[in-house]
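Collaborator request, handled under Task 6.
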Amino acid sequence: MVRERGGDGPNGGRPWCLPLADRVLLVAVYYRTNLTMRQLAPLFGVPSATVCRVIQRLRPLLAIEPASRPADAVERMWIVDGTLLPVRDRKVGASSRNYRFSANVQVIIDADSKLVIAAARPVPGNTADARSWRDSDLAAVCEGVTVLADGAYSNTGLVIPHRKRPGRALLPGQEEDNAEHRKARARVEHAFARMKHYKILRDCRQRGNGLHQAVQAVAHMHNLALAA
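Structure tokens returned to the collaborator:
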């Protein structure tokens, strides 16, 4: 896939000192371990500057492909939630409720396969989930599909749990509906836990588009692991 997207680069010029498979492996190891480039260099027998160039060149080519509307959209159910990812770039993150400088990333998964459907661009970590959803382009991806979300997504058109009103108890059957909703929505939390096995999402040192491209690549590798 990386080769088809132009991973070998244009013909001519100085060749890479590593074959394409090893370069892809280098980027995957970087995302998985979050080692510094100086630590990765001796593992692959190349200078740290080469490690930097390989990561900069290949990281956008590992991104997950944009999701298309499924043919059986009416019968499908997706789940959306936001997660806070610690980041060093002050232009991307903000001080948030996890007491760290973080970015908020909205992710959609398929409830049945648990595959990642799409991930939005990061926004500052103090941004509410509902606003992050409205400001992203994920709503267009979910057109015609039932999407579950938690109570933070009120007034967004998504399926959220029944809420208690002051002085009013839930109606009969609503507590059971909420229990089923929580059980289904827990799958997105499990997906986040698996994605964060890639330590780049626990402390991202990349700047600019680095976090967004890391999330896209990790989501793609997460899907490949589930499909294997």
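The cover message to the collaborator said: "The chain has a mean pLDDT of 90. Residues 1-62 form one domain. Please let us know whether this matches your experimental observations."
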